[in-house]
């Protein structure tokens, strides 16, 4: 039996939708049809979870004096209520990165230019190393890929499916505090858009609180896109304004390169890390690792969860759940072109 | 129950296809309930296979709400709305990626599928041995989201490559290369015997 036939059998016997669930879904649809306007905001369970997670995080990350989200008003995207004070250890690294960047010429990336990024990604289960090559225009409007036959396919990007967009970096501030505000404004925009159903796919997980999401946004931008040295220094500087971010001494990326890292620990005791070269401050890669033995505990009553008491999720301390390396990033002549 | 039509339909006239119903729902929104009634079971089954029945109940409701809100941009040259609905469902499933991978990992580690109450476990076990099932689930968990989406739309949703391209809003060539890559990975994993090496935290 080949793999597709086997796959066709897997979970084929999943039970059909229960009448109650079907009726509830139909009632929601009918309510929507007869509603006078679409502007009603439904509070999604994800928002509830975010609050719970923030509370848990405060118990784990004891080093932070006031472990709380920095506020913000998702109803008014772009308005950052309070920006936490910059943390000296992170800010110092960012300052040195800035000094290093200033030795290079200022670079302006035109909005319509094509950029190329090559990434190595260690798959968590199989340990296979994937070698990924992606092309994007700097304005986030187009992407391109090369398929197995060498054909270049250019596609228009749906902004609802591509979060964060490369456009996040276009014209972004090049100093730390401005970049921090830019980051939180984008996180608030993402949260608001998710509530309104305007985002269909995002790699920034907002369910673990606003600060962890801000860190994730910076990490995704560094991981996926071409970033100029000055923007890179500003993104590092922005991390200093995110409560809970620390500097970690020795971390290895997917290509086996060693560096220092910025990290933040979420409520699952996973530390998300941004690895950089300790001399040039160039971004090297990303890693996520369990900092403690983790066994999922039951959710508080009333919180929507996929928790299964007979089979709680377990990860041993030190389990690496994400490992990548950015091998190449450049402005290129066109889609499919390499530097 | 369909709302009144402007002219009485002839006794033998065929039921309006999805495109006609969706077009009619632009002026008479309640017509859209027909789309729900026609496809809710199939779309739910696809979602439940991916993330479990509990999460599927909510996602399937969201799917039809999103479809309803976007009905004005539906391509009425497509008489069958299923690829469109599968596409919407797939993007909503992507938000639950954590639970999907979690299910697959649990099945891969323990062989016990955490999806609730199987109706006919024996049937599956006869066709797919326990070990193969574990390896298959483990392999599925390692696929990239885009590769898994394309693969499961073709195999579980039984969409054609062209319908899959439309559902995911990607070029046909990309569907082909995603499926190639996904099948290659599945084959590689199924051919292997030592599971111990692969389960990271076991």
UniProtKB/TrEMBL annotation, chain A:
Region span, Disordered: 291-313
Transmembrane segments: 46-66
Entries under InterPro entries matching the protein: CU044_5270-like (IPR047789)
Keyword terms of this UniProt record: Membrane, Transmembrane, Transmembrane helix
Protein name: CU044_5270 family protein
Organism from which the protein derives: Planotetraspora mira
Automatic annotation (TrEMBL), chain B:
RNA polymerase sigma-70 region domain: residues covered: 36-102
GO cellular component, one term: DNA-directed RNA polymerase complex
Listed GO MF terms: DNA binding; sigma factor activity
Pfam name, any one: Sigma70_r2
Keyword list, A-Z: DNA-directed RNA polymerase, Sigma factor, Transcription, Transcription regulation
Matches recorded under InterPro entries: RNA_pol_sigma-70-like (IPR039425), RNA_pol_sigma-70_dom (IPR014284), RNA_pol_sigma70_r2 (IPR007627), RNA_pol_sigma70_r4_t2 (IPR013249), RNA_pol_sigma_r2 (IPR013325), RNA_pol_sigma_r3/r4-like (IPR013324), WH-like_DNA-bd_sf (IPR036388)
Domain RNA polymerase sigma factor 70 region 4 type per the UniProt entry, residue ranges: 134-186
Single GO BP term: DNA-templated transcription initiation
Similarity-based family: Belongs to the sigma-70 factor family. ECF subfamily.
Name of the protein in question: DNA-directed RNA polymerase sigma-70 factor
The organism of origin for this protein: Planotetraspora mira
């Amino acid at each position: 039996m080949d793999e597709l036939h086997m796959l066709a059998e897997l979970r084929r016997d999943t039970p059909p939708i229960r009448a109650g669930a079907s009726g509830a879904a139909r009632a929601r649809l009918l309510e929507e049809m007869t509603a006078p306007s679409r502007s009603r905001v439904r509070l999604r369970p994800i928002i509830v979870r975010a609050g719970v997670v923030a509370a848990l995080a405060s118990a784990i990350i004891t080093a932070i004096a006031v472990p709380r989200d920095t506020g913000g008003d998702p109803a008014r995207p772009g308005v950052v209520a309070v920006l936490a004070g910059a943390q000296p250890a992170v800010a110092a690294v960012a300052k040195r990165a800035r000094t290093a960047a200033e030795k290079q010429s200022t670079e302006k990336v035109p909005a319509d230019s094509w950029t190329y990024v090559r990434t190595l990604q260690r798959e968590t289960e199989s340990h296979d190393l994937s070698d990924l090559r992606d092309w994007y225009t700097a304005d986030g409007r187009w992407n391109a890929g090369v398929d197995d036959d060498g054909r270049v396919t250019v596609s228009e990007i749906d902004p609802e499916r591509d979060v964060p967009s490369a456009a996040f970096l276009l014209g972004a501030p090049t100093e730390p505090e401005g970049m921090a505000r830019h980051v939180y404004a984008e996180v608030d925009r993402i949260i608001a858009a998710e509530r309104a159903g305007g985002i269909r796919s995002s790699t920034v997980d907002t369910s673990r609180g606003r600060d962890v999401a801000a860190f994730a946004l910076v990490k995704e931008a560094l991981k996926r896109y071409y970033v100029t040295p000055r923007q890179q220094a500003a993104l590092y500087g922005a991390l200093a304004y995110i409560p809970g971010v620390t500097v970690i001494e020795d971390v290895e990326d997917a290509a086996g390169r060693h560096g220092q890292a910025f990290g933040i620990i979420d409520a699952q005791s996973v530390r998300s890390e941004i690895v950089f070269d300790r001399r040039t401050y160039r971004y090297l890669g990303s890693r996520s690792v369990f900092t403690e033995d983790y066994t999922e505990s039951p959710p508080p009553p009333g919180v929507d969860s996929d928790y299964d008491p007979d089979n709680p999720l377990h990860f041993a301390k030190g389990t690496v759940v994400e490992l990548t390396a950015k091998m190449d990033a450049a402005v290129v002549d066109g889609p499919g072109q390499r530097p | 129950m369909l709302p009144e039509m402007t002219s009485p339909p002839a006794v033998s006239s065929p039921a309006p296809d999805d495109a006609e119903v969706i077009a009619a729902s632009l002026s008479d929104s309640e017509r859209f309930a027909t789309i729900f009634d026609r496809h809710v079971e199939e779309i739910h089954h696809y979602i439940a296979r991916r993330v479990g029945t509990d999460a599927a109940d909510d996602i399937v409701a969201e799917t039809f709400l999103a479809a309803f809100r976007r009905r004005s941009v539906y391509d009425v040259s497509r008489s069958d709305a299923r690829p469109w609905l599968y596409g919407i469902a797939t993007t909503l499933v992507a938000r639950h990626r954590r639970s999907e991978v979690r299910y697959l990992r649990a099945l891969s580690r323990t062989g016990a599928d955490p999806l609730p109450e199987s109706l006919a476990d024996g049937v599956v076990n006869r066709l797919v041995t326990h070990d193969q099932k574990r390896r298959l689930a483990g392999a599925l968990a390692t696929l990239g989201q885009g590769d898994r989406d394309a693969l499961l739309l073709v195999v579980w949703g039984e969409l054609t490559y062209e319908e899959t391209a439309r559902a995911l809003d990607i070029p046909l060539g990309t569907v082909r290369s995603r499926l190639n890559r996904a099948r290659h990975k599945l084959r590689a994993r199924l051919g292997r015997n030592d599971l111990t090496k692969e389960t990271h935290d076991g």
